[in-house]
């Protein structure tokens, strides 16, 4: 009569996950720090598989061993606090999971700490928002490989299914699951920013109203851009406002919030030395959007060019679609190259094909496009960069002209397109025979004797710059 698993933390995500587990026949014990939340949950969402507990002692006492517990609480200090209270009640072999958006270095630290007590700690990335948690998220579990045998069946059962396969796979040891979730969110930021830029282009240069914009994004749902984010965008654009006339989107303040996972991705990329400029651009775009007062002042003081209307509407829409697709390929190429590097650096042995495959459903970045990425890594698990795969190479070849065209039109009209602009800069630096770094090395050697390498000779050199050649 013992319980299979416990969920600690019953706000939206925890509650939804507990109900999802109970729907799949698991006996779930639930607990929340404030009693009222637990009471409200079992009252509003009664389920025969769910049993509330009001102390951690009772909760841990009710679980079958090895105990399986998942924390669904706010990342940061609250996780350490719960671990502090819970660890003395756990025994060797028990499995403690953190299903929140914790920073992967915190997960690594906590894993090490709990390992000393024989507790198997798991950092579990979970994507899909409330709907996903309730009916099938994408799940990225990272921790002790042996323990996966215990928790894998439950996590797979409650996960989304893509072509019948669970969107859950063992990711790797210690912080690997949370790292992959972090990069998922970084890609999510870039994807959202790219869609916002396509919206700006269509609205201001294309001159389309919200109904038409909604139709355009809706049409894109039947092609290569088909994705959860494009789908909700089409719906959002036609959503009427409750308070006044027109669509709600026009009344929403032009300032985007963030909780930090995109920024972490950008910071980690700089530490690792991997270019994810589009994710960084997406973070900066949100940061800039928040400077409302300064932006208002700049709007009054700093003049730019007038918007030049698009030519033939249908070909402009096509160009934006193709340009968006090219930029999307580049964003995913950046994100997956960061994962590849992390795998090496942390010795996680990440299987990028499997990771792409669990992004096919359940998560925020789910898209048909993920089938192509999955196939590319299945074909070549060591693929260095997505752009080297024939499918994506061709995708870039076919669509980069449109990306260049819409970025040019946007810049001429004074529209901010940071993610699309960085997409092109990344592509051109990557494929460019010359990036100007010879001059940078010369400057470094000139002012600081930092030396340089030569194209025609081995070894490192220093030059006495400015000293005339002896005759
Ligand atoms: C998910 C999401 C989710 C994230 C939100 C908001 O995969 O379900 O990534 O974990 O919290 O998308 O993130 P920001 O507040 O940083 O935009």
From TrEMBL:
Ranges for domain 6-phosphogluconate dehydrogenase C-terminal: 177-466
GO-annotated biological processes = D-gluconate metabolic process; pentose-phosphate shunt
**Which Gene3D superfamilies does the entry link to?**
6-Phosphogluconate Dehydrogenase, domain 3, N-(1-d-carboxylethyl)-l-norvaline Dehydrogenase, domain 2, NAD(P)-binding Rossmann-like Domain
Positions that bind substrate: 101, 127-129, 184-185, 189, 259, 286, 444, 450
Which keywords does this chain's UniProt record carry? Gluconate utilization, NADP, Oxidoreductase, Pentose shunt
Asked whether the UniProt record includes Amino-acid biosynthesis among its keywords, one would answer no
List the catalytic activities from the record.
6-phospho-D-gluconate + NADP(+) = D-ribulose 5-phosphate + CO2 + NADPH
Q: Which residues are NADP(+)-binding? A: 9-14, 32-34, 73-75, 101
A Pfam family this protein belongs to? Answer: 6PGD
The pathway entry for this protein reads as:
Carbohydrate degradation; pentose phosphate pathway; D-ribulose 5-phosphate from D-glucose 6-phosphate (oxidative stage): step 3/3
Single Gene Ontology MF annotation: NADP binding
Q: Which residues form the active site?
A: 181 (proton acceptor), 188 (proton donor)
Protein origin, superkingdom: Bacteria
How is the subunit organization of this protein annotated in UniProt?
Answer: Homodimer.
What the protein does comes down to:
Catalyzes the oxidative decarboxylation of 6-phosphogluconate to ribulose 5-phosphate and CO(2), with concomitant reduction of NADP to NADPH.
Regarding protein family, the annotation reads: Belongs to the 6-phosphogluconate dehydrogenase family.
NCBIfam families tied to this protein: gnd, PRK09287.1
Protein name per the record: 6-phosphogluconate dehydrogenase, decarboxylating
Name the source organism.
Diplocloster agilis
